[in-house]
Design brief:
Elements: H1 15-27, E1 40-44, E2 47-50, E3 55-58, H2 61-64, H3 73-85, H4 97-109, E4 116-121, H5 124-139, E5 143-147, H6 156-161, E6 179-182, H7 194-212, E7 218-223, H8 239-249, E8 253-257, E9 281-284, E10 295-300, H9 301-305, H10 320-335, H11 338-359, E11 363-369, E12 372-377, H12 388-400, E13 403-404, E14 406-408, E15 414-417, H13 425-442
Parallel strand pairs: 3-13, 5-6, 5-7, 7-8, 8-9
Antiparallel strand pairs: 1-2, 2-3, 4-10, 9-10, 11-12, 12-15, 14-15
Helix pairs in contact: 3-10, 4-10, 7-8, 11-13, 12-13
The structure holds pyridoxal-5'-phosphate.
Pyridoxal-5'-phosphate is lined by residues 123-125, 128, 151-153, 224, 228-229, 257, 259-260, 285-286.
């Protein structure tokens, strides 16, 4: 077991990582880049140990995946037991219980107590694609509305839904059609500020959908209840419930993409729970299975049952090993109240970052919910000019000090904090000390 302690035994990256990075350059396509090229040898909870014996504090969780902690013993055991029994049959050929059990758990845990069905896939993008397929099939309509700053994946259809050109879309088109983009209810950057956003966003956005797409041509509106890659943007209170109601009134499906915000990350099982929003379809992945690749679309029974037999699936979707990991992860989250733990982590992060904001004018806003907290950096609080270069410099300074951090945001100027929910308070505080030191050294 790895001690939950930061250790720097070489410069970051160390010599063995540098060597591996040279091999990487010669063998792996350059399009697959590495944010922090230290090669991991072992990991547990909030610590990643690299091949040079350095131990780094993990504030990224592999992008909100290892919510239950890296190498969670319950997950490891479930995976080992399943691997010994069988590794694959293809659920569409000869089924197995684990797949069904995951869908049963998803029906219990996702928002709403209506009759639900699920289908399992391998990645978040695949889940989003299938949600769109289901929505179009159910409504007989084509139009899909997504938002500014949205991130839904890198496949052709989900690239079209993703808002940011570089690096996700640049020269990868042409993109799938019948996808429309509307402004996001982004309080910090809404013209006039958060109060205006709260008052105006809903009408403005639904007017846009009406004018540019038309309700009768819109199959679904898809939104991340808290936007992830786009900058941890939290819409104002009341926006999501009103949008969901509006969709219902117009026979438009409301799809919540909770690939990043789901599974206790936001301080509830799902970010929709905060305001009691019940989506027609919800997509999940990342945190679902403690690091094993698994994704799901869960939704109203009649929507998923409406699809003809054989219309949904894939060779590996709902792989038995990934399902075993998911069941163990969901049990662990419930038994250890990881949603409550996410809220406690969020308070610690927010408290510390808010006090930093008093001393550093470059922190324009601290926002987020649960253990999904971000700081948006600006060069000037009045003009809110994005400080992307500073975000990059702080990120690098954190890495050199043995803290794994991630930036995000369409403008590249947002720092996001995604520690595993099993991280200790001591490690969290130490990580924040490192962040502050790195920040002070970079401004
Ligand atoms: C990461 C992400 C996806 C894509 O998931 P992959 O597993 O990388 O395909 C989709 N939606 C959201 C909100 C995400 O954060």
């Amino acid at each position: 077991m790895i001690e939950q302690k930061r250790i720097l035994s070489t410069p970051i990256p160390g010599p063995r990582s540098v060597e591996l990075q040279q091999r990487k350059t010669a063998a792996v396509g350059a399009g697959v880049s590495t944010g922090l090229p230290v090669y991991v040898e072992q990991a547990r909870d909030g610590i990643l140990r690299d091949v040079d014996g350095n131990q780094l504090i993990d504030f990224g969780s592999g992008i909100a995946v290892t919510n239950v902690g890296n190498g969670n013993p319950a997950v490891v055991k479930a995976v080992q037991q399943q691997v010994e029994r069988f590794t694959h049959t293809c659920f569409m050929v000869t089924p197995y219980e684990g797949y069904v059990a995951v869908c049963e758990r998803l029906a219990e845990l996702t928002p709403g107590d209506h009759e639900k069905r699920s289908a399992l896939f391998n990645s978040g993008a695949e889940a989003v694609e299938n949600a769109v397929k289901i929505a179009r099939h159910a409504t007989g309509k084509d139009g899909i509305v997504a938002f500014d700053h949205a991130y839904h994946g890198r496949t052709n259809l989900t690239m079209a839904m993703t808002a940011k050109n570089m690096p996700y879309k640049h020269r990868f088109g042409p993109f799938a059609g019948e996808l429309y983009r509307v402004p996001m209810a982004y309080p910090y950057r809404w013209p006039g500020g958060p109060e205006h956003c709260e008052k105006e966003a809903f009408s403005y956005i639904t007017d846009q959908i009406h004018a540019q797409v038309g309700e009768e041509s819109t199959a679904a509106v898809i939104i991340e209840p808290i936007q992830g890659e786009g900058g941890f943007i939290v819409p104002p209170k009341g926006f999501l419930p009103r949008l969901a109601d509006w969709c219902r009134e117009h026979d438009i499906l409301f799809i919540a993409d909770e690939v990043q915000s789901g599974f206790c990350r936001s301080g509830d099982w799902f970010a929709c729970d905060d305001e009691g929003v019940v989506p027609d379809l919800i997509t999940t992945a990342k945190g679902i299975a403690g690091g094993m690749p698994l994704a799901a679309v869960t939704g109203r029974a009649e929507l998923l049952d409406g699809v003809h037999p054989g219309g949904l699936g894939g060779t590996y979707g709902g792989n038995p090993v990934a399902c075993a990991a998911a069941l163990a992860s969901m049990d662990f989250m419930a038994e250890h109240d990881l949603a409550g733990r996410a809220r406690a982590i969020g308070e610690r992060l927010t408290g510390r970052l808010t006090s930093m904001a008093e001393r550093f004018p470059q922190i324009g806003e601290v926002r987020g919910r649960g253990a999904m907290i971000a700081a948006e950096l600006v060069t000037d609080r009045e003009t809110k000019e994005p400080a992307a270069a500073l975000a990059g410099a702080v990120n690098k300074a954190c890495h050199e000090r043995g803290l794994v951090t991630l930036t995000c945001g369409t403008l590249g100027n947002v720092f996001r904090f995604l520690p595993p929910l099993t991280i200790t308070d001591e490690l969290l505080d130490e990580g924040l000390d490192v962040f502050e030191e790195a920040f002070a050294a970079s401004v």
